[in-house]
Each structure stands twice: as C-alpha cells, then as structure tokens.
Amino acid sequence: MINNRCLIKSSNFQIFKLMPLLLIPFVFAACEKKQKYANADEANADFEKYKVHFIEDLWKQYPGWATSAGFHKYDSLLVVPDDHFRETEIEFVKSHLNKLTDFPVNILEANNRIDYYMMRDQLSAIRWSINEFKEFEWNPASYNVAGSFDAVLNGHYEDLELRLLSIGSKLKNVQAYYDVAKSNLTPYLLQLIADPINDTTKRAEPKLKPNRLLVERAILQNHGALFLIDSSLIDSINKSSLDQVKKVQLIADAHLAAKSIGDFINWMEVEMLSQIDSLERVDYRLDKNLYKAKFKHDLQAQAEPVKIYWDAIKDKKSVHIEMKLLADEIWEEYFPSESIPDDSLQEINLLIEKLSINHVHRDSLVTSIRNQIADLEKFVTDKNLLYLDPEKPLLVRETPVWMQGPAGASISSPGPYDANAETFYNVTPLTNYSNESAESYLREYNNYTMQILNIHEAVPGHYTQGIYANKSNSMIKAILGNGAMVEGWAVYVERMMMENGYGNNSPEMWLMYYKWHLREICNTIIDYGVHVEGWTQEKVMDILVNEAFQEQAEAAMKWNRVSETQVQLCSYYTGYKEIYNLREEMKNKLGEKFNLKSFHEKFLSYGSAPVKYIRMLMLEEAE
Questions:
Q1: How many helices (H) and strands (E) does the chain have?
Q2: In degrees rounded to 5, what are phi and psi of residue 23?
Q3: Which of 143, 164, 268, 368 has CA atoms 20 to 30 A from the CA of 456?
Q4: Directed axis angle between helix 571-590 and helix 288-299, to 10°?
Q5: Radius of gyration of the chain from its Cα atoms, rounded to whole angstroms
Q6: What Cα–Cα distance (Å) separates residue 50 from each residue in 16, 115, 469, 561?
Q7: Residue 122 three-state SS
Q8: CA 430 – CA 409 distance, rounded (Å)
Q9: To which H or E segment does residue 244 belong?
C-alpha cells in the first residue's frame, strides 16, 4: 500500500522533476550573508520571507512536482532530464544550502526550526540522489510523462481549453525527453555489449543495474502513458471548444508524442530486455553503505536501519506469541474434532486459512471497498478518535494503467494548493489475473484484512492524514512530505482502531489484524535482508509464507516489490514504531491530561514532517 504523494517526495524527484526549466537565480536582500541577527523576531521574520522564495525556486526547478502540489504556474513545462538539468539541480542545492547558513537555527521558533531541518534534509537528499544513487542511469521506470500530463488533463482548476494549451507546450518536449531517457540508460547497456561504441561516449558504470521486473514495469506503465496521450488526450481535444486549427495542431503533436513513447517501449523490449536476458545474473541489490545512506535520506528516522531490522525480528516473535493465544481461544470452534497441533505456526496457519475463505467476488473488489468507507467514518466519529472533515471527497477508482505497479492499492491525495480537489483511492482490478491467482489474492484480502486495508488507505489512514497535511500552517511541512511519517501513520491507526474496539474485539479480527501487521514487520525484515544480507527469493518466500502466513500470490508480489525498490518497504514499520512510541511517551508525560483525540489532531497538525521533528515540537509544547 503506497501513498503516491509520499512516492513523489521519497523517490528524489525521478517522477515529477522531469520538466523543462530555466533556472532563474534570485537576489534576495534579506538572505545576504549575516553574521548574526539582533534578535529572534528579526531572524524569524527573515526566515518566513526566505521560505516563500525557496518554494518559488523549488517549483521553477521541479515544475512537475509543482503541478502535483496544485501549483499550476508552470504546467506548460516538461523537463528534459539531461546532464544540463542535473547541473542546474546541483546549483539549486548549493545555493539554498548556502542560504540556510544565514539563519541561526537555535533562535528560530519551533515551527521554523523544523522547516529549516526539513529544507536542509531535502536539499541533501537531492544532492545524494544525483551524485551517488544515480537512478536516472539504471531505472527505466523512472521515465514516464503520464503523471505530468494526467495532473493537467484531469485537473479542475481552470477551463479545459486553457489546460489543453498548457499540454500543447509540454507535448513539444516529449521526444527530447525520451531521447534523453535512452541516452541516460545507455551506459548500463554499453557494459553488456561485447564490442561497445567508442570510449568517448561511455560513462562510469552505474552502481545499480535494472532487472527484468523494473523494465517490465516501465513497459507496462509507459503503455498507460501511451493510452493517456493517444486516446484520452485526443478525446479531450476533440470535445473541447478550441478552434479547428488549434485542435489539428494539438492532435498532430499528441501523435508525435505517442510515437516517442512507443519508440521508448520498443527500445526497452528490444534492447534492454535482450541484454538483461543474456546475463546469468543481474544484481540490483544495494550494499550496506548505500542502503544506510538511502535509509537516512528517504526515511529521516531516529534509528539506524540495522536497529530497525532487529526490532522487527523481535516484534515478529512477539506477534507470534499473541497469535498463538488467540488461536488457542477459538480452535475448538473451527476444528471441533481435531487436536491443536504441536507446531504453533501450523495451528495459526490452519485457522487463518479457514477464516480467509470469506472474501468478496473478484468482480466486486472495487465496489466492496467503496461501500465500507462510511462505516469507518462512523466508527472514528462515534469513538471520538479524530475530527473528520465531511467536505473533503474520497473517490474509489480503478488504478490508472500508467500507475499500476507492485502495490495493489494506493492513495492519490491533492496537493496543498489544490486542497479542495478529490482524493483518489486507487484499487488495481483483477482483470488480468487467472482464476487461481485471483482466488489467492482475494484470500489474502479477505473480509477481515480488507477492513484493515481500508483503515490504512482511507479512514483514518492516508486519506485522512492527507487532508490534515494540506491544512498545515507551514507550506514546507505540507510539500516536503516524509514517507515514514505518512506510511507510519497508516500503520499506527490500524493498531489504534483495534485498541478502541474495532471489529467488536473479536479474536478472529485480532488474529487477522496480527497477520496483516506481520506484513508490515516483515516488509522491513526482507528489505534489509535482500539488499544488505543478500537473501535469495527462496528465503524471502519462506519467511512470508511460513512465518507471515501470506498467500503465495501475495508473497510473490512482495518479492517483486523488494526487487524493484529499496528502503520504501521499511517506511511502514519504522514510522509506526516512532509514532506509537511517541504516543506512549506523551501518555507518561501528561498522565490524566492525555487525550487520544487531541494527540492525533496535534500530531497531524504538523503536516507530513518526519516523526523525530514532530516529537521535538510536541515534547517542547508539553514542557
């Protein structure tokens, strides 16, 4: 389960940074070098002004990200992700890291201090991504124009005709975009070819290499982009009130853009897949140092990844103990004539298999999810757990093809400038599943775990957190979202809802909750295991099936995901532990004054800041 706003940030801009730009340096008198400020008020006033200029520069640098946030000044731009663009990124980073040193962080007020840290961390992450991680050289799935076009084509912020004119400008750069994509990915291919072209065209070998799964995902998602441009866009052009000359020109440009996308798909199918298939093994794993660095920049967690890994192993054992107690309680009801097996994991698995039979029909998946949202909202309101804004719509839809990947469900939240727009709950339909695969999938997402999924993705999970984030009094906290906080909140509320009696405290519901929670724990275990310890597919599947009780189809999909991504799978458990521990810390500090609803609303009021910074602010206020 992925929050797409989270992905926009944590992928270091490989999706939404890809728009053209003129980097326009600005001269801002208040940000000139100062040794010190006369007082804190002066420093804070200048910092507030500086943040405005930082955001404006950020949107100039990353216009696609700006569009996704609901800032539409640069909708007509499509960045060509070439060497020159990366040079402008580095200059952007250097300039603003230098400007931040003008401000004495120790005298900034608390909210500004957190904004300072988040800006500094984001700039450092961009620099690391370009200089060290270099995803642009090895990940074909980082190249896709669909998100940039979809946000404009299907936006509701101005008339269709004006949006189409912006799209018309973007279309003119699509061919250059995909030409550069092939050029960026070519160094990977050159090292595989026996007789490479002349050395002057070669670059240093990328640290990571794409595997077949990454290429296949890039092909699938770019087919979605092809449909968006060559079908949906052209339909919208024909339905618009633009004059015929403009329509003809736009349609011609759309066809040329679609051809460029098709050529890139063909290039991946012919060049990339054939070279990958010629190798005995393509190693896509991070080493320990690279993993540690990515963990630091992506998650901004308090703990090191190795500690999170061992915490997860410890919690897995604790969950097995709780599940054993629940299984003993209900065993006789479901297996009245059979003795409890000596093997506790076998006992738990048999009960889970029995309960998993109860699931919806494959054709009712999207509808059943849509129908359950109101029940979750009522529970949250009746239990006084959190204020829910009744004016913010949530629309359940089938996941657009260009977004389909290794996760079956996700949330697409509007940006802070578009706060009144719809939030989409994306559910990937089972259209292409065989009957056997669909049955396995539905047993995994049965009538019990489907409720946990909806808590996680919708209420009071990602959907609710996104609404609060857009109300934050700091635009920095709203736009520089932290993946571990966002995913951690969604995992935390699963537990919180159960603690407050969701599912009538039935042992069956608790047992299936723990099964679900094992997914999140094991996400961290297998991610670290694969990328740092070099675990095989067989070892991962054994853990997921025999210790986390997952269906074969779900476990296979998770193996694909850990093969295509790094660190993101740790965000769920990492953020959850930090939020849960903070809540318990606040309980101990406030005693009888602690109120759960107040804690939730205060926590969410800080936008999507890293939990370690939210903790800093909440503890300061408690003092």
A1: 27, 4
A2: -75, 115
A3: 143
A4: 50
A5: 25
A6: 24, 11, 21, 40
A7: helix
A8: 12
A9: helix 244-267
